[in-house]
Amino acid sequence: MKFTKKAFRVALKANNQKEIWHLTAIKIGRTPEKFEVLHLVEELATTNRDYKKAWALAFRDNECRRGALTDYIFLKRGGFRQYGDSHYRSEALQMLRRLLTEKPSNYTKVPMMGHTHLYFCSPSYGYADYNKVRTCSIEGNEEFVNKIVNIAEKFMAKRNF
């Protein structure tokens, strides 16, 4: 079989995942990685619907959401862009807003600095919480991370966490 743009677009419109991966493998000459499939779909897809299919195809599982493999997000205007620090910083701010506005419960997560990243984890388990959420990197965001931790500490002192 030979790779053609037309065959790839037909497979994409039919949402034939096996064929999409097969054609990508033919194009690059080896077994493709998820981000390679995404790049090819980004290059050859013609509609937003096809982009959404590509997103579901390439990044279905949540484990790769924060990994080095998948630093891409679908944008409404029809393209893909790499996550930057602003995305992880906004995620940290969202978690902080949730802490400040929601009623404290057993599932409340508080900010805690790790060695390389800012984490939101259970106040009782701390860094050992298996359900912790990793947000932004500390390197390059020292001032931002310190402000978030200070705000959270003041709030927790008021609420007697």
Fraction of residues in β-strands = 5-15%
Instruction: Report the radius of gyration as a whole number of Å.
Output: 21 Å
Series of H and E elements: HHHHEEHEEEH
Shape: elongated
So how many helices?
6
| Number of E strands | 5
Can you tell me the number of structural domains?
Answer: 2
Overall mean pLDDT score?
Answer: 76
Summarize the main sheet: 3 strands, antiparallel
Q: Which runs of at least 5 residues are low in confidence (pLDDT < 50)? A: 61-83
Helical residue percent band:
40-55%
Question: Given the helix and strand composition, which structural class is it?
Answer: alpha+beta
Biggest β-sheet: strands ordered side by side in the sheet: 3-4-5
How far from one another are the termini? 63 Å
Q: What's the structural blueprint in terms of helices and strands?
A:
Elements: H1 5-13, H2 17-28, H3 34-44, H4 48-58, E1 72-74, E2 80-82, H5 85-101, E3 110-113, E4 117-121, E5 133-137, H6 142-159
Compose a concise summary of this entry:
With 161 residues, this protein is of the alpha+beta class. The chain contains six helices and five strands.
Kindly describe this structure.
The chain has 161 residues and is of the alpha+beta class. The chain has 2 domains: 78 residues, no CATH class; 75 residues, no CATH class. About 14% of the residues have low confidence.
